[in-house]
Amino acid sequence: MASRATSLLHPVLRSSTRPSIVSLRTTNATQSTTRLLSLGARIRPSVPALSPTLPKTAAITPTIRTPARTYSNGKSSGKSEGDLLVEELQELYEIATDEFEIATDSTNNATIYASSDRESARDALNQLQITYELYTTDVSSPEFQELQKKHADQADKQANVEGEASQVINTNFNPAEVSDEARAEVRKRVGQRVRELRNAVENLEERAMED
């Protein structure tokens, strides 16, 4: 079991021209191919920023949707509860990392896509971070109730603002059914990488505001 957990999170090397972000390794070739095809559709020429710049799109506020699915539905795979949760977060992490790298390239090259690319990176980070928080917070604790209320209030508030959209956060498993042991395992295996990526996205946003 230890060797399996290690293989899921074995870091890979990235180009020295990009920020050093520890990458989670995917074991699902089909998911990797789908993600690469999706990214390929977003490859754009490096175009200098025009003046005036394109208007920013509306901010997106998360709305959380949790399924009735529980860990028992995934037992046939032979994987532990912690492995299933980590695999879901791993996929979200890789998507968010790819979006961050695209945003970094377009920001460094001052393209007309830089602003929207940074928003896409932020949206992907939100999906990862909120899912991580739901899976690692004790459902019986006040923190869990506050977490759900906070995101629900934000969604209601933004829904009443013209031009504001709501980002739907879908989780593969019901957070209320996650065991304490699985929560601890997810925090140990994924927490540091989520924090590193969050800091990287925030630094990119701050740098863009200063330019």
Structure commentary:
With 211 residues, this protein is mainly alpha-helical. The chain has a domain at 80-211. The chain is built from six helices and two strands, in the order H-H-E-H-H-H-E-H. It has a two-stranded parallel ribbon. Helix 3 packs antiparallel against helix 4 (114-136) and helix 3 (81-108) packs parallel to helix 6. The longest helix has 31 residues, at 180-210. It is globular and about 45 Å long. Residues 1-41 and 45-61 have low confidence and may be disordered.
Strand content: 5-15%
Largest sheet: 2 strands, parallel
Low-confidence blocks of residues? 1-41, 45-61
The radius of gyration over CA amounts to: 18 Å
Assign a percent range to the helix content: 55-70%
Which class of secondary structure composition applies to the elements? mainly alpha
Question: How many helices?
Answer: 6
* Termini gap: 48 Å
Shape: globular
Strand order of the largest sheet: 1-2
Chain-averaged pLDDT = 72
**Secondary-structure element series:** HHEHHHEH
Number of strands: 2
